[in-house]
Target: Amidase
Amino acid sequence: MTIAGAGQGLNWLSASDAAAQIASGQITARDLMEAIIDRISARDATVRAWSWFDAARALKMAEEADKIPTNQRGPLHGVPVGIKDILYTKDMPTQFNSPHFQGHFPNIDASCVALLRGAGALIIGKNDTVEFAVNGRRAATTNPHDPARTPGGSSSGSGAAVADGQVPLSIGTQTGGSVIRPASYCGVWALKPTWNAVSHEGFKTCAASFDTLGWYGRSAADLDLLAEVFGIFDDQTPDIPALNGLRIAVCRTPAWPQIEDAGRAALKAATAALKAAGVTVETLDLPPAFDGLPDAHKVIMQSEMRSAFLAEHRKFGAALYPEMHAILRNEAGQTRKDLIAAQDLAARCRAEFETLAEPFDAVLTPSTAGVAPLGPDNTGAATFNRIWTLLHMPCVNIPGLTGDAGLPIGVTLTGPRFSDRKIIALAARIGSLLDGAPVA
Model:
């Protein structure tokens, strides 16, 4: 399936191209914003990616941006950005898609929002999310390729808005698979960086050991542009002149028994494309200890949720959605001993994975089990994302492949902690191979 009107108009510019054209005077910030507003107006009734958007305000912001002298402009000058509605914004509501926080104004910017504004970005609205970015009430957002299907969660609106040409960049968060999964289902580029490489000050905490700010763009260059804005760097500047001669490991992960036909075919197609480009592709089988990571993720996440949501638990109690209420009451009976064992396993596996990955330039793994399922209640599962989130590894969703009914499906490139810029650079090379590649 194809997105209505895809590729037509300024609204489809990548952030990198938009920033360059504004800087050179080819277009104005107002030109770009008018195209964005027209697209949102045409598609919002179907895609519903925004929980808050004011067209008149957005246009005024663009007009004011055009008045700023050239020598005072940042790298994102005039580029519109959407913000997941769990991140605080001083000039618009932050409602967590929760009935308990409608009209909530924190009156402060999250650290990442402040950095974006400082770089010249125009924060145009809030993207819809699953309630508290955890579970419960679903985002109203639909998949731009097929409105009967989910865009994924919890960063539902963030992924869909970029995929549908409604904004060139958007910010999401991931605690399990909430950045990479929507990217795979919607067919866009996304980065979940190394944990804590970007400050998580100013968004609704779920599990502080895992919560990671991430972002969506239309190209690997867009991901790299924001990595620069957010101050992410590797110890060595990546130099990837070509893929020929590189070594890539394919890791199925302990979740492989849950792969679907489309996910299996996508990984096979990506592997074939790499081999054809001269890459040495090898299999990386994780040791048995890694089989315990999904359960460890659950124990740590739920234990930390009981701290993060203690105030809401005491205030709203059973009025919270049932699954959250059960977690906060610790109905599973998780002990501190369980938590320590899970934390210790995670720490051991982080070190061991980096030893296992050291001989390779990167690791290729599924982004999702398959294509986007029918929604809205089923937002898909973080099955193939959780262990990388727990291990704190950087992950890039590489789009370009399609599965059932022409729906997009991504693959993930990952590697050791704090190799974010290298992973983005490698992903850019691989992405050029996969765009439109046949899926066996």
